[in-house]
C-alpha cells in the first residue's frame, strides 16, 4: 500500500497550492479568485477556469449579500448538502424548494420540469438572494424568464447546471444577457452541484 | 430568450441518446453500460468513459447486492443526497458516518482526516455493502487499509474521490489491487459526488 497524505491542513494547503500553480489565477479580479479556486478544487479540473463567464463584480456582490444575511437558494438538495454551514457568515438560510408539496402538479400544469416549477416558489425570497444552480438547466432558464417578467433581482446567480440538454444553452443565455444580475457561469456541458456549492462556500469564507 | 426543451421525458431521452451516440458504450460489458451512461450524464463529460477502470463483474455485483437489500455506504452527505431513493430496489439504507459524534476526535487520535476516521464506523456494515466514495481520497485509502487488515469485503466499491491530493493515487491503488472486491474507479483527478451517486442510481434502476 502506497503512503499518502493524511493531515487535513496539509492536504488543503497542497490542493490549493496546486490550483494556484496551474490555474493562472492572476487573470481574475481579486474578488473572483477565492471562488475560482474553490470551484476548481471541487471538480479536480484546472481547465474550468478557461470556461468561466462572469460579471466583474460577481464575487463582491455575493459576498456582500451573504454578509448582509441573504438566503442561498439552490435548485437541488445536492447543492444544499455541499454548502458548509459554518462558512456562511450570517447563519444564512439555505433554501431548496424542489421537494415541496405541489411541485410535481405545478410542473404538469406549467408543462415543464419539476426543477423549473420549483423556481416559482422562489418568488417571495428572490430579491437580493444568492442563487446556486448546480443541476437543472430548466431551473436557470425558468429563472431568467421570471426576471424578464419583472421579478425582483437576486444579488448573484451562480450558474452551474450540467449535462447534454440545455446546460450549455442556458449558460450561454445568462452570459449573453445577465438581466443586470451579477453572475458566474461555467460555459458548456460541465457543471454540477459540487461546483455550485463550492462557489457559495468561497463567498462566505472571507470578508472582502 | 431562446426556446428550450421543457418536457422531462424528452430531456432524458435526448440526454441519453447523446451519451449513446458519443460515448461508444459497446466497448463496455452489458452490465456496465447503465452505470457508464449515468456517470457521463451526471458530469456532462463523455470522455470520462475513457478513464474508467473496473472489474468486469462490477455492475452485476452491485445490482445483486442492492436487490438483496445491501446498504449503500457513502463518504459524504452530497453522495447520499444524490441517491434517488425510489430507484433503490429494496428500500436500501443509505449510510453516512462523516457527521457522527466522535468522528473529529477519532480523526485526531488516528492522525488522519475526518473522512478517513468515519470509515472506521463502517466496520459492522461493510460486509456485502455497496460503497460509494465521491469526495475524499483518504476515505478510499483508509478503506483499502482496513480491507488489508482483514475487514470483510463489500460487494462493490464505487471509487470517485476527486481533487489534487490523493484522488488519482487512491484510485490507481484500487485499480492496481482491488483486494478481490468488484470496483469502478474514475482514474485521475476527476470524480465527485454526482458521479458516485449516479453510479448507485444506475445499479438500482434495472434488474439484471
TrEMBL record, chains A, B:
Top-level taxonomic group: Bacteria
Domain Cobalamin biosynthesis precorrin-8X methylmutase CobH/CbiC: from-to ranges: 11-203
Gene3D superfamilies given in the database record: Cobalamin biosynthesis CobH/CbiC, precorrin-8X methylmutase
GO MF terms, alphabetically ordered: precorrin-8X methylmutase activity
Swiss-Prot/TrEMBL keywords: Cobalamin biosynthesis, Isomerase
Matches recorded under Pfam families: CbiC
InterPro entries: Cbl_synth_CobH/CbiC, CobH/CbiC_sf
Record flagged with keyword Isomerase: yes
EC number of this enzyme: 5.4.99.61
GO biological process, one term: cobalamin biosynthetic process
Pathway: Cofactor biosynthesis; adenosylcobalamin biosynthesis
PANTHER family for the chain: COBALT-PRECORRIN-8 METHYLMUTASE
Family, similarity comment: Belongs to the CobH/CbiC family.
Protein name: Precorrin-8X methylmutase
Annotated source species: Rubellimicrobium rubrum
Amino acid at each position: 500500500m502506497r503512503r499518502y497524505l493524511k493531515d487535513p491542513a496539509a492536504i488543503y494547503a497542497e490542493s490549493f497550492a496546486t490550483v494556484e500553480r496551474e490555474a493562472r489565477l492572476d487573470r481574475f479580479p481579486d474578488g473572483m479568485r477565492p471562488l475560482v479556486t474553490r470551484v476548481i478544487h471541487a471538480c479536480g479540473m484546472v481547465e474550468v477556469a478557461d470556461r468561466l463567464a462572469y460579471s466583474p463584480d460577481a464575487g463582491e456582490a455575493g459576498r456582500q449579500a451573504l454578509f448582509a444575511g441573504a438566503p442561498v437558494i439552490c435548485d437541488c438538495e445536492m447543492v444544499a448538502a455541499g454548502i458548509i454551514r459554518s462558512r456562511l457568515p450570517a447563519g444564512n438560510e439555505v433554501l431548496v424548494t424542489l421537494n415541496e408539496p405541489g411541485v410535481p402538479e405545478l410542473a404538469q400544469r406549467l408543462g415543464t420540469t419539476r426543477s423549473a416549477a420549483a423556481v416559482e416558489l422562489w418568488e417571495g425570497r428572490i430579491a437580493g438572494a444568492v442563487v446556486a444552480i448546480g443541476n437543472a438547466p430548466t431551473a436557470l432558464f425558468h429563472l431568467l424568464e421570471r426576471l424578464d417578467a419583472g421579478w425582483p433581482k437576486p444579488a448573484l446567480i451562480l450558474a452551474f447546471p450540467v449535462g447534454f440538454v440545455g446546460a450549455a444553452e442556458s449558460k450561454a443565455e445568462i452570459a449573453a444577457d445577465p438581466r443586470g444580475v451579477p453572475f458566474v457561469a461555467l460555459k458548456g456541458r460541465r457543471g454540477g452541484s459540487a461546483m455550485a456549492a463550492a462557489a457559495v462556500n468561497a463567498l462566505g469564507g472571507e470578508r472582502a
